[in-house]
Amino acid sequence: MDTMDEFTKAKQMDFPRSVLIGHDVLLQTADLCKSLQFGKNGLIITGDNTYKAAGKTVEELLSDKKYNVFTMLTNDATEANVDEVCKRAKEDKARFLLAVGGGSKIDITKLAAKKLKIPFVSIPTSVSHDGIASDRASLKSDLGPRSVEAISPTGIIADTAVINAAPFRYLASGCADVISNLTALKDWEFANRMKNVDISSSAYILSEYAAENIISNCKLIRPNIEESVWMTMRPIIASGVSMCIAGNSRPTSGSEHMFSHAVDLMYPGRALHGEQCGVGCIMMMQLHGGDWKRIRNALNEIGAPTTGKQLGLTDEEVINALVVAKDIRKDRFTILGDNGLTRKAAENLAIKTGVIEG
To answer: In what order do the strands lie in the sheet with 120-124?
Structure first.
């Protein structure tokens, strides 16, 4: 009798173990570290402004509970800064790290924690994208930002009062980044049909839930309202976790991110990552034949950019980024295909969606 082939598939998925969301949850930092059994030596990774926003409080809270914590101020997410954090953590004999800040501080800490093989806690002071819970990091280089494998945080402390105190633009950008999941998912499906790329249904569902949740509540997301932060934190975290499930960034990163990365490479510093992804999502949804106006309306309602001008880009720069986008990730097949867009096709797309003026 024929026997079935031996089943050999295996997969590892790492998720945050403890997630605290809400008003003044920063005060529970020491309790969370104790419950996760980190040990007593820790290193806080933060910046000048984020130290004032929450880092100093975290430092004092842990010191009061007899933790030996040290603080390191750093800047952009670069290989050099990651190495500096690793060096400092070894000098201080840190057994855990705490990332207190925005995306760059969390990305640095993710990569340092992976290199050091120690846990870390993600403590966002703003949420301009969905990386606070994911196991991916964006690293800056001379060739532009690149997504690299890291580790997910062991714990997350998202204090809505702290995040609400940050400029609303960051929250709107984070919402735009999550909304852009909708074109990433369409690209994933397209790659599955055309290239037989595997799809994780659970990661897909979680990513879609996150985007649809933000769109459903877009009329309620407003500046200086802490409940708006509360409303958006769960889908933003869920979006990050979808990448942990998939084992890659496919659930949240497709052609719209390739447009954003092209902008970063050619015209750095013009806009936030999530803002660029939102505008990219409008255009890529049109390419997919989807309801791009629904995306544009949701972004408008939240107060995120929907045009190149709002990103600080000229019409010509938008077209240039669209043309170059296909070259950003040769390993990721999307609606842009292998050949990308001609200049005329890029111009027509941007005009049709209102991203540039006709």
So the answer is: 18-22, 155-159, 120-124, 96-101, 41-46, 68-73
